[in-house]
Amino acid sequence: MLLRYRFRIYPTEPQRIALAKAFGCARVVFNDAVxxxxxxxxxxxxxxxxxxxxxxxxxxxxxxxxxxxxxxVSSVVLxxxxxxxxxxxxxxxxxxxxxxxxxxxxxxxxKRRHGPQSxxxxxxxxxxxxxxxxxxxxxxxEVKVAWSRELPSEPSSVTVLRSATxxxxxxxxxxxEPGEPMAAVASEIGLDxxxxxxxxxxxxxxxxxxRFFARLxxxxxxxxxALSRKAxxxxxxxxxxxxxxxxxxxxxxxxxxxxxxQVAKLxxxxxALYVEDLSVKGLARGPGAKSAHDAALGMFLARxxxxxARTGRSFGKVDRWFPSTQLCxxxxxxxxxxxxQGLKVRRWECGCGAVLxxxxxxxxxxLREGQHLVAAGLAETRNASGGQVRPGTPGTVRNxxxxxxxxxxxxxxxxxxxxxxxxxLRE
Length: 427
Hints:
Layout: E1 2-10, H1 13-42, H2 50-63, H3 75-96, E2 117-122, E3 128-129, E4 135-137, E5 141-146, E6 157-162, E7 168-175, E8 188-193, E9 197-201, E10 206-208, H4 212-228, H5 235-269, E11 272-276, H6 280-283, H7 289-295, H8 297-311, E12 314-318, H9 339-342, E13 347-349, E14 355-357, H10 358-375, E15 396-397, E16 410-411
Parallel strand pairs: 8-11, 11-12
Antiparallel strand pairs: 1-5, 1-7, 2-6, 3-4, 4-5, 6-7, 8-9, 9-10, 13-14, 15-16
């Protein structure tokens, strides 16, 4: 398993100048490679290979008067920039031909001079962590590192990053052996994620939505208005850009820290976690797009799944078409409010007499569905549609992908013994 460990570094002024040269040279090589392949496509020629681009854009370019300054930086940095461009083109072609999972990717774009910058050193560059704790980088020198923890093994590469606010970081790629799983606990939970509350757990706990962007949105607008009044290319505009970047960085850091704390707490306290396979990109295009981006649900799910895998916890996703909010957790009937108007109904009464909180009811249903998928051996699939995965019960659910007149795809389990029929979360 490969993990990244990132640490803050503090280069001296000469080292910052050397890093700026390396950032610029890597950016030029990347942009030249993008332009070469775009020109080849426009002229109807075959795409130049990575070896041909390396010979033309690096080896021969160093001998020319226009690009002789490429020799002032490590050649590994330039080769890695060329490798990044080649990987970007491969991902684009694989995405267009259906060989790459996920949404369709666009072709690589030119890198900008302003904003975040990065370069990468591999083992061929002979970077080294010295006994004094400093990081020796070729043609840059020994850089001071603020170590917050020890690396578990020898890093295979290091990426030096410069943020938009001018801070420098070193990101190490380290191979980590699977560690000892965390002590087993008896608790299992289902999580219903949302925008009103960040998450409602099946055990009744509610995680409030912190809304970090909304809290600093007024300050961000103020700095952006100040930026819009500055003349392009002026020193005052550079200062205003820095202020805007600092607000964005504060939002990002607060969100990252909060997400990591929530993930660590949930994994530590529960043996199994079951969530809904949300369409995060769909939420980000809807009426609540700003709130969806602020909540960072996709980032939370990715970190929760990764943390569960590294600590020996079980993690399962229930299909997004499973009617968790419309299904009564007390009797198993589907009778909850539907459609856009149903989103406004936070509490509803089932025909069996149970009064259900919308989010808590959904969390209970996600927990049961996740447990049934694990018991049926279908936890690795997107859903269990098309198969009978549990014994017959009073309620049934039709698979939304099937026709209206077809038989239901699966039946639902009755509530466990001792399950309360009336569920209240909020007064």
